[in-house]
Amino acid sequence: MLKIAWSEIFAHSLPEGHRFPMLKYDLLPEQLLYEGTITHHNLFKPGVLQEEYILDTHDADYWKRLHNLELTPSEVRKTGFPLSKELVNREVVIMNGTVQAALFALEYGIGMNIAGGTHHAFTNRGEGFCLLNDIGIAANHLLKHKGIHKVLVVDLDVHQGNGTAEIFRHEPRVFTFSMHCGHNYPFHKEESDMDVPLADGTDDKTYLDLLQQILPRLLDEVQPEFVFFQSGVDVLSTDKLGKLSMSIQGCKDRDRLVLELCQRNKLPVAVSMGGGYSKQIAHIIEAHANTFRLAQHIFF
Fold it and tell me: Which InterPro entries does the UniProt record give (predicted)?
């Protein structure tokens, strides 16, 4: 059964002025339920993640200061959000959503988080709407507690997964692959195990041909036992924060390529939604909904 992390806290705990792009966290499950792609049995509400799992990835001093709302004004500005207890609680629940999705993936082949993809969070700081790193935390959980020895991170958000790259810089059991717009945030890139910077305006065919060349080879070379897929839809031509020129169909074909390769190779995959900032919320919902539709079709 497809299991999907979702909670009202994903959207409702955000401050005024930051809620429009986060409407997707409520609208997306509504759309998937309405069209019959999922039922309420597919959704699960993650609770608060245990602190010990956060500390397997994040610096203890950073977590203490974040938890106690003691970040400096400069640190808060870099996150993009006004700091609050509600915001921190939201982040911790999102972290557990991806951890639980990864555990469901071990059982069913795939698990998904309607939120997540907080790939700009480093071991000791937050950036770009990310306070903690869900893929980092979930991958470390599998390595430490579930007998997984090799993880592949496939980050196809329009922005480089700089925080994830930093977290696993010295961890040979995790291979980080980021294919992103080269001239976009973050302006200082970290070094992933494999970075593929794309030119502004990259279209469907160029993008998909390149991904088809790279990903099957990566699976052969890395030989992962588990895949984390960051499926941001900020690659769309309509996205306000992206600079690529992909269509909704191209984005769907991207997700199909990744998910079919995982299913064909019997690789469990945990999917985090990542970014999506098109002016029309309908474009964001449709592109994200395609990821869930494909998951149901390919795995079940």
Answer: HDAC_classIV (IPR044150), HDACs (IPR000286), His_deacetylse_dom (IPR023801), His_deacetylse_dom_sf (IPR037138), Ureohydrolase_dom_sf (IPR023696)
84-104: pLDDT as tens digits: 999 999 999 999 999 999 999
Supply the pTM of this predicted model.
0.96
Q: Where does residue 264 fall: left (phi above 0), alpha (psi -120 to 50 degrees), or beta otherwise?
A: alpha
Sign of the C-alpha dihedral, residues 52, 93, 119, 65? negative
120 belongs to the catalytic site: yes
**List of residues 6+ apart from 21 with CB closer than 8 A:** 276, 277, 284
Catalytic residue among 58, 119, 120, 283: 120
The answer to whether 193 and 126 are in contact (CB under 8 A) is: no
CATH topology of domain 3-299: Arginase; Chain A (3.40.800)
Domain spans, the chain: 3-299
